[in-house]
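Supplementary Methods, section 5.1.

A reviewer requested that the exact input to the structure prediction be made available. We therefore reproduce it here, unchanged from the version used in the analyses.
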Amino acid sequence: MLTVAVIAAGCGGSSASSSSASPSAGTAKPTGSITFLVSSTPTVDNLLKQIPRFEQQTGIKVNVADIDYDVMTQKETLDLRSRTGQYDVFWVEGTFLGRYVGQLGGLEPLDTYAASQGVDLGLNDFPARLKANFSMNGHLYAMPFENTMMMQAYRTDLYAKAGLRPATTLSGYLSNVAALNKPPKVYGTEIMGQRGEPVFYEWINWLWGEGGQLFDSSGGPAIDSPQAIKALQDLIKLSKSAPAGTVSYGWDEAATAFAQGNVSTAVLFSDQTPSLLDASSSKVVKVWSYEPFPGTAPTAFGGYGWGMNAFSKNKPAALAFIQWATSSQVLRSLVPGGSSPPRTSIQNDVALQAKYPWLRAEAAASQRAQVPTSSPYYFQFVDTLSSDLNSALTGGMSPQAALADAQKKWKQIISTGGSL
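The structure derived from this sequence is encoded token-by-token as follows.
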């Protein structure tokens, strides 16, 4: 893989009170160069444009490895397993912690390391729920960067015309979808039915909403419970009011269908906001809004942050970069592009909420945002369960049979230490 230094021009950002964008002085001024492994998103791309300013401020050289998401996670795993420290800072999700920390011991606890360096990360400016999503064994292993949550996206014009309000309950959501289903001009909804993380994340919101859990009180799988079956039946019902092909939609396809005005209501990841705001491709720029996922149960969190390789050879410089990239000033500068800022001071800024209405709904959803699981078997769990969920959506299996099969496979994964 080619690793290149970012040379794009920097862009400005407004000042903020919670945390300075300039790295604070630690025990010594960080120097040297680091490699930052990441996968492109609109918000990431906007961050990368500002890196030259960080380099100018600090003298630290940042080499950026920007690659495909799946390849990125493979590279991270291999680097941590080999303990080579090829990448100093990289993309971390809460679901990665079981493997990256529990199995590989490859992430530096940022809270402890920052304290040892006299560096203030401004952690009081993040919701407790959000910090918990990036923590294990009482330590924070990644600084939140993008507060990606599954949000209820809806067409304000269609809801107003029909005299409807965004749903606050699951039954209300199903009712709204049915009422607004007017194919072929516009469909009531869509679902992310694609095998892998898309259908897993789509289903887990309904699992939690129906009162179910992935695991029982003893830690065993509970994915064939009555609540789990009802959640899958909910998705199948929704698929009847969705465009053809929705069973193969991933997050990008789902966002595109909504942006093209093909559906009235959808559950989208909030990091898709930039595509909804892009007037060159979105037909709903002025007629959409967000509300939290219906109900009061947890809502799925797919956000990511920047973690430090425990085997990095230049940790002070890596910490300086993480502090800068997650500072109030930098995160605030990304909001106009549609980012989902994780800092409370930005989410709750009244002036920003008036200009960027999605912040209000995201601030509310942040209190319920939860990582599905931090099990070291997360990737195996998703692969097996998503295959069965997709089979049920396409009519190949009944909900009961699909989840019974997944339950059996999850038990086998656990008993064999990750193998089937």
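Confidence is low (pLDDT under 50) at residues 1-20. These observations are discussed further in the main text.
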